[in-house]
Amino acid sequence: MTTVVKTVEAVNESNLRARKKNINTPYTIEEVAKHNTENDLWIIINNKVYDVTKWIPYHPGGNLPILNLGGHDVTDAFRGFHPDWAFKKLSAFQVGILTGYEPNQVVKDYRALDEKLRREGYYKTHYMFYAKLYLWLSFLFCLSMYLTIYTTELKWQMLGALVLGMFWQQLAFVGHDTGHISISHNRDIDGWIGSTVGNFFGGVSLAWWKRTHNVHHVVPNSVQHDPDIQHLPIFAVTDKVIPDGVFSNYHKKQMTFDSFAKFMVSNQHIFYYPVMAVARFNLYLQSILLLFSNVDVQCRKAEIVSVGLFWCWYIKVLGFLPSTSAMIAYVLISHVVAGLVHVQICLSHFPMETYDGVPYNSDDECYCITQLKTTLNVDCPEWLDWFHGGLQFQVEHHLFPRLPRHNLRHARKLVKELCKKHNLPYYEYGFVEANRLLLLTLKNAAEVAKKAKEVKFSLKNSIIGDLLYARG
């Protein structure tokens, strides 16, 4: 039995002893909405009301996803991210039932589609797909090491750097799969793959990625809550953060629009690709800051060891290069190529609608519609699916996060039918057009930034201060 299950049972026993309210007490959705703080947090799942206040510190996905959805109907978010056994552990948290509320037809049909996908085996992993993927990744890594270590001509070693960058880009998709527990569907197994194998070969902490990504999925493109669009002072995905900045509920700090931010944001459509080319260095830093922070990190020791071993082998490989300039070129080439994955990640959300606060406040902002409004697909032929690693089907992925990536193309047809039936938005563009829309979004915000008045620059509250004070 896993640690998580044991912890759930301990909290359940505590709740059973402490609970005094009748579990059949009726509550309206307005009454539940009042219980939305860290000290008093209720949620609704399948028309049952649960008090999960005591569970917040133990939630395997971190406390922020729960805190962001306090007082809401989280049926679809819960179903999307949790295995079936999690539903069985809910009973001890129940404090009542929901009354006077009926989901609209969009929600009903979306849930029916999820049931259809489960019933017809879309959630089952085809392990032959991952066997082939293992061979592909092994080929890329071994080829890069051979070209770097066993050849003496600089041109072949630089080709080795290019192949290594391609390996990292492809490896990131596997990390994404393990983070969503969509390979083995066992949290411990997928977590082990990501925290050891993924960290060892990639150097980026799975724990750091999951901490941000879990929040992103439940509040996609929320100006205050989604860390994936909070990039001041480098980028402003929306002009809503100009000139007042934004208080990040993820980072727990005010992100200011100072003179440095004004310069960067005013030119962000020009800086975008160069920044993406070196963005991986920031991920290394964020991983180290998290692993050595006082934040609760699962498998911390394994994460630290595997990330540390990454730097051991990578620095050793650099030692085979003939000069310092060759090392610098090798590092830059490998990271520029790996930066493709950052472009791919941003494509699906940067050009899309943003909003203030948290979603799911009305029928028009239900889980399904929120994901559709804030996400786009990248249209590509099936033979090119390997290049995008499943990220091209972000709409389907956001609607069904635990669906194995090799089944997303098949689910796409069914999702389009759902959207057509209810006249719902479904955004899908080619790779070039999606990049154009992203740059247009950045340019529009840049035009606003040029005319805005910035606040006085403060070293302590700047990105430089974050580095000096070791803040993530």
UniProtKB/TrEMBL annotation:
Mode of membrane association: Multi-pass membrane protein
Molecular-function GO terms, alphabetical: metal ion binding; oxidoreductase activity, acting on paired donors, with oxidation of a pair of donors resulting in the reduction of molecular oxygen to two molecules of water
UniProt keywords, alphabetically: Heme, Iron, Lipid metabolism, Membrane, Metal-binding, Oxidoreductase, Transmembrane, Transmembrane helix
Record-annotated Cytochrome b5 heme-binding domain positions: 24-99
Recorded metabolic or biological pathway in which this protein acts: Lipid metabolism
Gene Ontology process terms (BP): lipid metabolic process
One GO CC annotation: membrane
CDD domains xref list: Delta6-FADS-like
Compartments where located: Membrane
Entry superkingdom: Eukaryota
Record has Plastid as a keyword: no
Family (UniProt): Belongs to the fatty acid desaturase type 1 family.
Designated name of the protein: Cytochrome b5 heme-binding domain-containing protein
Taxonomic lineage of the native organism: Eukaryota, Metazoa, Placozoa, Uniplacotomia, Trichoplacea
